[in-house]
Amino acid sequence: MTEVVTEPVVGDPALGTDIEETHVRIRYASPYLTGVSTPPECEWLEYLRYRHKDGPQNSADADAVISVQPGTYSGATNLAPQAPQVVRKAAAQGKFVEYIALDRRANCAEDNSGWDAAAREGDYHRAAEYYFRGKEVDGKRYAPPTPQSLSYLGEFGLALAMDDWRAVIEQVLPDPVDRGKSFCGGHSLGAFLVGPMLAWDFDTDPATVDDAGFSLCGGGGIALDGLAISDPVGVAGTGLLDELLSDALGGVRDVAGAVTDLLPVAETPILSAGNIMNTYSLAAMAAHQNPEAESDLPQAAPRDLSTEAWMRTFYGADYLDLISPQKLPDQQRLTNQAALGMYFDQNSSEYVLQAGTGFYDCAVTGKTYPVPNGLTSIPIIGQLLVIPHRVGYGQNYTPTDPNTLCGWRNYDQVWPSQVELPGSPNGTPTDADHEVTDIDQLARAMTPGLAPVDFFERFTPLRLITDTAFALGGIRNDELAGLQNREGGILEHLLHGKRWQSTPTTVPVLTLLSGDSPVQNVKYGALVPANAIYLPGYRHYDVVTAAEKQNSGLPEPASAAIAAFITRSR
After folding, report:
1. Strand pairing partners for 509?
2. What pTM was computed for the model?
3. Cα Rg of the chain, angstroms
4. Which residues are CB-contacts of 87 (< 8 A; sequence separation ≥ 6)?
5. pLDDT value at 141 more than 90
6. What burial class does residue 316 get, using C-beta atoms within 10 Å of its C-beta: 0-12 exposed, 13-18 middle, 19+ buried?
């Protein structure tokens, strides 16, 4: 590390008058990129640092420091709604903590020229013209990335992510003595990176421990709607079987690597990820700049074939939507705010792109794709459908009249909890207990150009995902040789009586699961820690985007649990 650049970040209302946010950049030449031709931007690591203004300036003097990895296709600003809350709640307990929101190195692939201009001019159409219409901004024309231009991202694997994380912790807390107050957390994919980080031995020498992940994260790990696991099967204690499995998987990984070398590694598994994420960013910017205006996103952001297929898969109201043109909900009359809600609210979107942001402010009709509404209300067999129900099926809606402009009720403007309203055959579509994220705050966090790093990571490299999967399966060859200190798992439980849950036990781990997220269904595989905390009514994004002021009148539970965990003995 030869250079550190710090600049203040201002303007986010969530900071209030008591929280300071700074953008930190570290020039760090990773050994995992030696010989790889990357743009100059990729020489830098970036993160957002949140601290209380009454607290110490020096991170080493803080009571605790938590560094957090965002999820798949997510950047550091994804964590912006949560970070000030954790710092503020800790300060209320008389403790000063820092929250480090990490921005993975792959974000260097992004061209933010259009977003910066649109934010500066207050008009999202400038970004639409740049990214979708080929118009110049500040004398520059957008060059859509190609698999060839992004080929260097094929080297951005798990080992690089682990080493970059280590570099940030060592920059923030250079003295190993201080790392007992260092905590490592993550959301979604980031949660699944916590286990490998705790298990990693950076010099692969078991005799030295200052460089080990469990020392760098000496305070503990935090998994947010994901699991901090290092060995789900539990082969670490099986001796020869462990070695054989690692060798066998190493061969499979080599074959997989050869195959992915032939694929658009930067844009897989979501082809044209740049266009998809640009569409989402445009919706957020429009909702932030002019929330009540009628949305023109379908015209402003024309779709390519892969983006169209993606939108139909996530937002179709019935099976005809998969093939019928001009039938998607976002092609109806929506305000900009309602369009963003359609994309991310749990009563509209499918799978994991969900947060409880409110509800449509118009007459609605229940969806029949991918399964009809109300299935869980069917006597006897309805309870057997609880798993798909928790994935987001069976409670989703679309505006009834495509010719009437539909607005949006924010999370704190929906119906009271536990109240049955007339007019809905299967009960009230939602209630205050299931809406926890402020759509105004979410729109601002998602809007590029307002912060120095993005809410979205437009190109999450496939190698990071495949490396993580192989590492959790037991592979420890080549770049994954650092994965040494694995614990837990089923075989370890059966052979040695150790914990069934594959949670590293060298340091304490806090696991928070969204109560209505599909991730919680991993409990059926017996992998969830016995003391995991479930957040009722929360969806996948809510665990990091929930508003500080909750409808229940109680403190926001995710940030409260994190603050309590990292200050528990300090």
Report:
1. 221
2. 0.93
3. 23
4. 19, 50, 51, 52, 97, 98, 99
5. yes
6. buried
